[in-house]
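Reviewers of the previous submission asked for a worked example of the structure-prediction workflow described in the proposal, so we include one complete record here. The input consisted solely of the amino acid sequence. No template or homolog information was supplied to the procedure at any stage.
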Amino acid sequence: MKYSIILFFTFVFTTACSSESKKCQKLMPAPKDESALEEARAPKFTIGENDDQATINIKSYNETQYWKAKMKKRLANIRSIYEKADWYDPEEKVLFFNYLEASQKAFETYVKAQVEMQYPEDKWTGSGIPLCINTVYTKYYKQRYFDLELWEKGTPDGEMCGGTALTQYELEEMGKKSR
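From that input alone, the workflow returned the following structure tokens.
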């Protein structure tokens, strides 16, 4: 009996999608996450066959500036969102903005120190060093951009460790009110 049930289900599962009238739906690829989409949209730093060192340095600088601008835009969006948010206590709002500013200053200090630790000023010279420095800055600006996503996009429903980040539901409700 036990084996006949197993055989029956095996038969059902293997033939369920084989007839023309019962074709199973094709699986759609899962949507890319935010970071994959951003990476796809971002300008790609490439070295062309005829690029000289100055051109390479400029291209790497442009990539660095792209991610720095994205990070700053996200910070501005966060400030705008949380300025409009309903806070339980006005003091919490002040604390949030103080910590946001402190966090950003600490980030900038950390990144500058990382670059200087790796490439001390006036110690490392050469036409390729700007490319290397830009690569380090780009890495950190990009990471900071994605680290800040939580406050701009919101936490998923049920997330209990989101801290000061609003939930996706709260952000949607705020959006409805502002229309």
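The CA atoms of residues 45 and 63 lie 6 Å apart. We consider this example representative of the routine output the project will generate in years two and three.
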